Amino acid sequence: MQNNFKRNHNSRVSDIDLNSVDTEKEKNEQNNFFMWLPQEVTLYIFSQLDIQSLCRASMTCMSWFATIRNNDRLWKPHCLAVRAVCKREVDDDRKSGYSWRDILLRNYQKSQVKLGWLSGRYSNICSPISLPETIMCPMDAETWGEILEAELKRPNHKQI
């Protein structure tokens, strides 16, 4: 009888494991409510996210990754915000045929650095050692020219 119990017990465990796999699959499908939403609604929800949240959402699952990565409408508003600081760079990239997502990737850090310089955040730095490492990124001569021009126009700029 004990042998019979073991066999029945193993049989039940096996049935439970199989049922739990089916239940898990059903839960995942139920939890991915985006799968059931119309594409326009999904895109509207994603369009309300900031850049960091949008990037994080794209790492959630493959379907979100594909939806977010392949939809230029989601990246365009963020890219236009970068364009306010890096107009020439964004316009040149657009003419070269880059997607809005790629333009944002190419110019986001540059726009943050340039904005910091133009706003005067780094105006009172006395030596290159004092510059935060995070603000250094490759920029072309025209961009550095804009930054230098802004620095020279500042009222607290000391003429040597």
Describe this structure as you would to a colleague.
The protein is built from 8 helices and no strands. The chain is mainly α. The chain has a domain at about 70-160. It is elongated.
Name the features.
single chain, 160 residues, mainly alpha, 8 helices, 68% helix, elongated
**How many runs of DSSP E, i.e. beta strands?**
0
What is the first-to-last residue Cα distance?
A: 100 Å
Would you list the SSEs in sequence order as H and E?
HHHHHHHH
Radius of gyration from the alpha-carbon trace, in angstroms:
27 Å
How many helical stretches? 8
Portion in helices: 55-70%
* Strand content range: under 5%
Q: Specify the structural class.
A: mainly alpha
Overall morphology: elongated
Tell me about the largest β-sheet: none
Low-confidence stretches: 8-21
Average pLDDT works out at 78
Assembly state = single chain
Please write out the topology.
Blueprint: H1 2-31, H2 39-47, H3 51-58, H4 62-69, H5 72-83, H6 87-95, H7 100-118, H8 141-153
Helix pairs in contact: 3-4, 5-6, 5-7, 6-7
Pathway: Protein modification; protein ubiquitination
Domain F-box: 31-78
Organism: Myotis lucifugus (Little brown bat)
